[in-house]
Amino acid sequence: MQDVLIVVDMQNDFIDGALGTAEAVAIVPNVKKKIEEFKGTVLFTRDTHESWYLETQEGKNLPVPHCIRGSEGWQIRPELDALRTTEAIDKETFGSSELGGLLCQLNEDEPISSLTFIGLCTDICVISNVMIAKAFLPEVPIFVDANCCAGVSVATHENALKAMEVCQVKVIR
To answer: Residue 161: CB partners within 8 Å, gap ≥ 6?
Structure first.
């Protein structure tokens, strides 16, 4: 049995770049410690957009270019990236079906006993990927460490945590 930690979009643009927040900056030490102490498989996702981001539906709804492939803002925070031992999963949407497929493959190779999600933003990409994991592996317990997550705002972070709890996700506070 294996435990899996999914580190969602801990990229410069979400921490202190184009869409950064004080709350995102504040969780970086917690995230680093969680990764360092985690006994199991650690996966990273990376929000990835192309130069034509503003022409996409997301770009029209959020006209702030961010996480453009190859840019400094696209990079995973250096102190966290140094802990990465697997290729990051580049995702062009909030949730990653590739992540769901990879989790299924890992579960076939060695059963997954738990999934833990941390990262940014709780209310967009974390919740989206949690729900994808729930759909792909409905019997695997899922945890979200609230101390290692931050949202677009404190209020929407809390709303997302409550929504995930309703969907039988265990929130660590």
So the answer is: 122, 144, 146, 149, 171
Query: Phi and psi of 77, rounded to 5°?
Result: -50, 125
pLDDT in tens, 80-138: 999 999 999 999 999 999 999 999 999 999 999 999 999 999 999 999 999 999 999 99
Q: Which residue has the tokens 């290692």?
A: 148
3-state class (DSSP) for residue 30: helix
Token pair 């989206």: residue: 128
CA 70 to chain centre: 19
Cα–Cα distances in Å, from 109 out to 64, 112, 134?
40, 9, 19
